[in-house]
Amino acid sequence: MTSSLNKFGLIGFGLLMAAGALYFLLRNDRPELYINEFMANNSACCPNSIVQSEELADWIEIYNGGDVAVDIGGMYFSQKKLRREAFQIPKKNPSLTTIEPGGFLLLWADGDPGRGALHVAFKLDQEGEHIGFYDEDGRTIDTITFGSQKENVSWGRTRDGGKSWKEFVVPTPGQTNQ
Ligand SMILES: [Ca+2]
User: Fold this and answer.
1) How far is the CA of 83 from the centre of ligand 1 (A)?
2) How far is the CA of 12 from the centre of ligand 1 (A)?
3) Which of 79, 42, 38, 71 has its CA nearest to residue 57?
4) Residue 11 C-alpha to ligand 1 middle, in angstroms?
5) pLDDT tens digit string along 97-131?
6) 100 CA from centroid of ligand 1 (Å)
7) Distance in Å, CA 105 to ligand 1 centroid
8) Could you tell me the distance, in angstroms and rounded to a whole number, from the CA of residue 170 to the centre of ligand 1?
9) Is 87 helix (H, G, I), strand (E, B) or coil?
10) Nearest 10 degrees: Cα torsion 52, 127, 156, 112
């Protein structure tokens, strides 16, 4: 009797573990978003024709490498490695904060979130620091740690969503990296 109970207990435990693994796999469909390019030492970028703004603040370009539109409203950004210090993108402006498949979104790192949904509550340190991008449930989407940045030169992935990074003397905020 004891051994039969143990057997059923083991089967039950196995089923529970399988269900847990399946749940994890289904839950693990992270949005295919990337920190694609950023500028942390900006005194001249960027012309209105590119970003329709006269901003000269630091910026972070996000790229959607997936095949579905993603609203980053509710997601978090941080310039520290601690998630609890992250800034949450407002959820009330999906028309501003949704990135189409293959599309780009520019966030202004001007430390002035009162200026709108695309302005985060921190600036980037041109001497180098960290950018963390986290999903609403706290899971990490992307992070980058960078060193000292040259004036008006951006740092970005050599190709959109790719693994390697390089300097861009001609930055491409809101557009494909090239
Ligand atoms: Ca770009």
Assistant:
1) 25
2) 51
3) 42
4) 52
5) 999 999 999 999 999 999 899 999 999 999 999 99
6) 15
7) 9
8) 10
9) strand
10) -30
User: What's the predicted TM-score (pTM) here?
Assistant: 0.81
- Tally Cβ neighbours within 10 Å of residue 95: 9
Residues 6+ positions from 134 with CB-CB distance below 8 Å: 75, 76, 77, 78, 83, 86, 140, 141
* Neighbouring residues of 123: CB distance < 8 A, sequence distance ≥ 6: 57, 58, 79, 109, 110, 111
Pairing between β-strand 130-134 and β-strand 76-78 as defined by DSSP bridges: antiparallel
In the numeric block, which tokens belong to residue 6?
A: 């143990």
* DSSP 8-state symbol, 28: T
Dig out the tokens for 7 from the structure: 């057997």
Q: Identify residue 13 by its one-letter amino acid code.
A: F
| Other CB atoms within 10 A of residue 36 CB | 26
Ligand 1 centre distance from Cα of residue 92 (Å): 26
87 C-alpha to center of ligand 1: Å? 22
Sequence-ordered strand ranges (E) for 58-97: 58-64, 70-71, 76-78, 87-88
| pLDDT tens-place string over residues 34-82 | 999 999 999 888 755 445 566 789 999 999 999 999 999 999 999 877 6
